[in-house]
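Hello,

Following up on my earlier ticket. Below are the two sequence lines again, exactly as submitted.
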Amino acid sequence: DIQMTQSPSSLSASVGDRVTITCRASQSIASSLNWYQQKPGQAPKVLIYAASNLQSGVPSRFSGSGSGTDFTLTISSLQPEDFATYYCQQSYNSPRTFGQGTKVEI
Amino acid sequence: EVQLVESGGGLVQPGGSLRLSCAASGFTFSSYSMHWVRQSPGKGLEFVSGIRSNGDRTYYANSVKGRFTISRDNSNNTLYLQMGSLRAEDMGLYYCARDTGYTSSWYDYWGQGTLVTVSS
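Thanks for your patience. The regenerated structure is below:
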């Protein structure tokens, strides 16, 4: 199975901060990397698909980059509604493994 | 509007069985691969199982292979997960999710989940 490792596991930030979360795959996954946001009590929601594509309806302050084994999710200016847990997921092959999550806290 | 509604969760003893269902509406169910993803209490997301649109191919996490069976009924727009030999580590919230089916696919819709508790 492909292992996905996110860092950091948690971070504290303030409204307006630029936030960067990284995700590393244990082998090359080309651009088959997705980012999800999950708020307490809610199902996850896709933000970025295929490494750098913004899902329809997602604010442009979210962006993704990377290919191969190293990927990044960036929030350019953190908003109050962005405090949540973020997961990366590879869809290069099955099983579709997730990273362990990054909790973004105030 | 796309809707995915899971049901069938509950309390089951270790070694027991349970069948989860996911009722889909608002899209052509038979055109999409569907997956189950679980989340243990306070933990992260874990892929459990997936099935292609016509049911001809299935996928399982190593942790559930041989104990769980995924299936679908395209005439009734319903996804199933038959769970057997349940263990404490199978406890959690089970989501069904629609897979976009592209080469580098993603989950574009999720249900709200159904809770499975394994305890004596």
